[in-house]
Design goal:
- By secondary structure, the chain is an alpha+beta fold.
- The protein has five helices and five strands.
- The chain has helices at residues 2-7, 12-47, 105-110, 124-142, 168-210; strands at residues 50-74, 77-92, 95-102, 147-152, 156-161.
- Strands 1-2-3-5-4 form a five-stranded mixed barrel.
- The longest helix is centred in the last third of the chain and has 43 residues, at 168-210.
Length: 211
């Protein structure tokens, strides 16, 4: 009886393979749980009640107010600079009321009063030039041409986004990689068990032939 049990014991390599499989299964489940609670749920809430529309520029203007940004000039070098506030007012195909355009949801959260946040440079003049360039772009390059924008009636009814931070591709990858990790772990465990079972059966058949 003791010899029969010993036959079913896993070798060191098989034991490591089983541990790897269970580790991948646990990692996949924890990733799904963590992403669902910390990232995916807010992203879906952000997208809920939203949609796309055609936007047309109504006005492009710079406010007198300036905002602070933080620049980095090295590992231990950081400082504060300022940039002017650019506002791009648009009309959407869903509503006749003007709305404030933003680059994306992150920019909206960073500065809800402005349409554009330039890459923070050490020189205030450079920041002003970047904002002026963006202002000319919306006035001269875009003008009255319609373009696609995104809105969310529930969260920010008076704001629209030029692009979404959480698009379908990001949401797909949010699900895809934890699921792939989980399935690879399951596959490793199943293959290890099957290989061991076949080896035990082959050993049993071999012993029967030798009797």
């Amino acid at each position: 009886m003791a010899r029969s049990r010993a036959v079913y014991e896993y070798t060191e390599a098989e034991d490591k393979s089983m541990r790897l499989g269970f580790l991948l299964i646990a990692a996949g489940l924890l990733s799904l749980l963590g992403l669902g609670c910390c990232w995916l749920r807010p992203a879906l809430q952000e997208r809920g009640g939203g949609g796309s529309a055609n936007c047309t520029v109504l006005a492009v203007r710079q406010l007198g107010e300036r905002f602070a940004c933080t620049f980095s000039c090295g590992a231990a070098c950081r400082g504060t600079a300022r940039y002017p506030c650019l506002q791009v007012l648009v009309r959407t195909s869903r509503s006749s009321a003007p709305a404030l355009l933003h680059e994306d949801e992150r920019q909206l959260r960073s500065n809800p009063k402005c349409s554009y946040i330039p890459p923070c440079a050490r020189d205030d003049q450079e920041n002003s030039e970047n904002v002026t360039y963006k202002q000319k772009y919306w006035k001269e390059k875009v003008g009255s041409q319609p373009f696609t924008c995104y809105f969310n009636q529930h969260l920010r009814p008076d704001d629209v986004m030029l692009k979404r931070t959480h698009d379908e591709t990001v949401l797909l990858h949010c699900f895809l990689w934890p699921v792939v990790t989980f399935l690879v772990g399951v596959l490793i465990v199943v293959l290890t068990i099957c290989a061991k079972s076949l080896a035990v059966r082959a050993e049993a058949i071999k012993k029967k032939k030798n009797l």
